[in-house]
Amino acid sequence: MTTPSREAVGQRFDHALMQHARERTWAALRGIRERMRPGISEDEAKVEATEVFRELGFERLWHPVIIRIGSNTTKTYRQRSDPNVRLGENDSYFIDLGLVFDGHEGDVGDTFVVGHAPERQAAADAARALYGEVADAWRTQGLSGQALYAFAGERAEAMGWRFNHAIKGHRVSDFPHSVHKGGDLGDLEAAPSSGLWILEIQIAHPSEPFGAFYEDLLTTSSS
Questions:
Q1: Which of 68, 87, 119, 192 has the fewest CB atoms lying closer than 10 Å?
Q2: 46: exposed, middle or buried (C-beta count within 10 Å: 0-12, 13-18, 19+)?
Q3: Fold of 4-217
Q4: Which PANTHER family match (predicted)?
């Protein structure tokens, strides 16, 4: 069993509100995607993102907005972007959002392609597919967090992509989850419970300077 401290929540925690925060954060991500265009920089995209958040009535950020364009898509959230990168005509980018709605944390991420960039589209598709495989393995086999990331790494390699082992997923809950110090999903020795953990997937092309990212809340429902 998962130790209670790893999955502790606050008194106001509500699974329905977690789902609501998830859905609203996905709506924010889609709103930013609609504003992405060739020539835009990451900083300019973040300004656009703020407008989207206000329209949706968010309460606050719980982690900084991350928008990575082009070669910056190979970087992790702890690495600084090259500030000179702008979205090309045939290019890719990913969005990683952590927003609070009704006192609960949403955390989602996805990768998109503009123009004609088949290899970059393949990376985006692979990140989504890999997330789906790992999430299904959790639902059907009850794998631990450690086993999930071992499986993810094996599958990414089999699919022909480099897997970023520095990305290990994490806890979410009613804000702020950090008071409970749930730790990384990839370090969890037990099977994670539904509605409390974010599964993060980041891959990169084996030789070219681009990658893809996808993350979402692990839930017993596949939708």
A1: 119
A2: middle
A3: Creatine Amidinohydrolase (3.90.230)
A4: AMINOPEPTIDASE, CYTOPLASMIC PEPTIDASE PEPQ-RELATED
